[in-house]
Design a protein that fits this description.
Elements lengths: L2 E5 L4 H12 L5 E6 L13 E5 L5 H15 L5 E4 L6 H9 L5 H22 L8 E5 L12 H21 L5 E7 L5 H11 L5 H12 L8 H11 L11 E4 L14
Parallel strand pairs: 1-2, 1-4, 2-3, 4-5, 5-6, 6-7
Length: 262
């Protein structure tokens, strides 16, 4: 039985990845590792098992991986490091202060970069030839982003580490890639949008304004968009692809689009 491990897979972007991996038959089961588990949708419940862990805690990661490999098999086929983001007060701090508090910077890096290393260190040695890893970075890691400097630096680190790990694991037949999502209205954007827009009631409007301003294709990205890309990168259809970063951003990283008429 082929199975995947998806961190932060209980909701939002992570759930989109879980759904795509199963619907596109990349794997038969998924182990979701999340600090705050939620029941999976009814149609996925028979194929998803949840394991509680804070992915910034080495011991908790070890215990969760021990438990899920005992349940689902010693050799995971797919690992998706998706857990990340931030908390509302971190975004507020970045909006009001030119410099993050050092502790906030460390928490961003711990959640978004160090967690990827901890989980890979625990899982990769258990993987065999043909396995695949996909890390969730962000277009913030590809662009200069003063408002989110700590988050952006951590996500840029994910890109760098993805390439290094791909080189490290390539001789073992394990592929490592990353995706860089654009503007997706998930929990992180609810918090960021509230910080930018000036309140929770304006979060959605702030996100939609950013989409109109920044996205050449003129549409926001969705968890399903990201999930399909991750599923492809982890499937046999991309057997000769490793060390790559795929931006699913509607063209944002191309630069600001020309103004639309009307």
């Amino acid at each position: 039985m082929k199975y995947a491990i998806v961190t932060g897979g209980a909701r939002g972007l992570g759930l989109g990845i879980v759904r795509a991996l199963l619907q596109e038959n990349v794997v038969e089961r998924v182990a979701v590792v999340d600090r705050d588990l939620a029941p999976p949708p009814a149609e996925l419940a028979a194929q998803v098992e949840g394991f509680v862990a804070d992915v910034t805690d080495e011991e908790q990661v070890h215990r969760a991986v021990e438990a899920l490999t005992a349940r689902l098999g010693a050799h995971p086929d797919v690992l998706c490091n998706n857990a990340g983001g931030g908390e509302a007060d971190w975004f507020e701090e970045g909006r009001h202060a030119q410099w993050h508090a050092v502790e906030t910077w460390r928490r961003y890096v711990d959640l978004n970069l160090n967690s990827v290393y901890l989980v890979c260190k625990e899982v990769a040695p258990r993987m065999r030839v043909g396995a695949a890893i996909c890390n969730t970075s962000s277009i913030a890691g590809q662009l200069a982003t003063p408002l989110l400097a700590a988050y952006a630096a951590a996500k840029a680190g994910v890109i760098s580490y993805t390439r290094s790990l791909a080189l490290q694991l390539g001789p073992l037949g394990i592929r490592v890639n990353a995706v860089a999502p654009g503007l997706i209205y998930t929990r992180i954007w609810e918090q960021l949008g509230a910080a930018i827009g000036g309140g929770e009631d304006k979060a959605r409007m702030a996100c939609e304004s950013a989409v109109r301003t920044l996205t050449p294709l003129g549409r926001e990205q969705t968890p399903d968009d990201i999930g399909r890309a991750v599923a492809w990168l982890c499937s046999e259809r991309s057997l000769n692809i490793t060390g790559q970063v795929v931006a699913i951003d509607g063209g944002i990283t191309l630069g600001r689009p020309p103004q639309r008429e009307g």
